[in-house]
Amino acid sequence: MEQESQPHEGQPIDSISLVDKVPVKKRKRLPSLERLRHELVYQLRESLRASQEKMNNPELSLAERHHWTQVHTYTAQVLNTILRDLQLKDWEKRLKELEQNGLTHKTLPTH
Q1: 56: how many CB neighbours lie within 10 A of its CB?
Q2: Which residues in 13-32 are b (16+ Cβ under 10 Å) and which e?
Q3: How many CB atoms lie under 10 A from the CB of residue 109?
Q4: Could you give the CA distance from residue 50 to residue 56 in angstroms, rounded to a whole number?
């Protein structure tokens, strides 16, 4: 059986298939890095909530609860790393703004 995408002998290339005639849609712009991070934070928090329910479920065996405790711990570590990175980026941004305004550690008032 011949595939539609292959031209038949004597068939013009224009009539190979309708797929070739469909205009190509432009790719949607990828979400910003900030939006991706916020989505990741949301998903990790949801994962933490779910794993906490499982690890505190008395109907599960001790081994299963132990497994969910490990999942919870690993998820919390990843979330903490992402939140720390977000905080550092925020601090860097604020520091650049201060430096652009001519404020440095030498010009800031001391307490």
Answers
A1: 12
A2: eeebeeeeeeeeeeeeeeee
A3: 4
A4: 10
DSSP 16-71: S-SGGGSPPPPPPPPPPHHHHHHHHHHHHHHHHHHHHHHHT-TTS-HHHHHHHHHH
Query: Hey, what's the torsion of the CAs at 42, 47, 49, 51, to 10 degrees?
Result: -170
Does this model's pTM top 0.70? My answer is no
pLDDT digits (tens, 9 = 90+) for 45-87: 999 999 999 999 999 999 999 999 999 999 999 999 999 988 9
User: Using one digit for the tens of pLDDT, what is the confidence trace for 7-35?
Assistant: 445 545 444 444 455 555 666 665 688 78
Measured between alpha carbons, how far is residue 54 from residues 43, 48, 62, 82 in Å?
A: 17, 10, 11, 24
Task: Tell me how crowded residue 37 is: count the other CB atoms within 10 A of its CB.
Answer: 16
**Backbone φ/ψ region at 33: left (φ over 0), alpha (ψ -120 to 50), beta:** alpha
